[in-house]
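The records we work with from here on pair a chain with its fold. The integers have meaning only within a learned vocabulary of local backbone shapes. A complete example follows; check for yourself that the lines match position by position.

:::
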Amino acid sequence: MHSIHVYTACGDDPLNNAVAPRCAERAIEICAGLVDLAQIGNGVAHTLPRQTICFDEWNVWDPKRAPGEQGAEERYTLSDALAVAVWLNVFVRQSKFVGMANIAQSVNVISPLMTTKDGLVKQTTWWPLLLFCKYMRGWTVATHVSGGAYEGETELKWIRATVDTPWLDVRLQSVKMAG
């Protein structure tokens, strides 16, 4: 597998934060194209399985809100939960290329679950993960939705030039999901 590693978060701008994971989609498309070029350039037979991408770490993390030197214990917002849902949609859309995607970390540090002396706290980012685990089964449905797009500033300036940022993140391909 080829590895990609990205975190997104955009401080106080909830719209920018929610569209930021689309940069991962572009990174996957670029990486998949480079894998194709490498296979072609090296004469790899089309009968061999194509190399897949491992998104070895992904998550929403704002180092200003949760500095690493202070434990990186992020307190997530609704905007962060929406960003996680967009991340998950990206992985579904790009499942042809992505063989594995690992959220970093799952407990305490930049995570959807926090432990306290009184028990477990499920942060806002926990819920999209739970919903995807519970309901993303079978076939996705190819859709076409026409509507507006976020036109504001993005944390990574290149996103505006290379990636669409629609208000509705529903552009799915027909893909058989693991059941």
Summary: Residues 63 and 172 are 31 Å apart (CA to CA). The chain has one domain: 2-162.
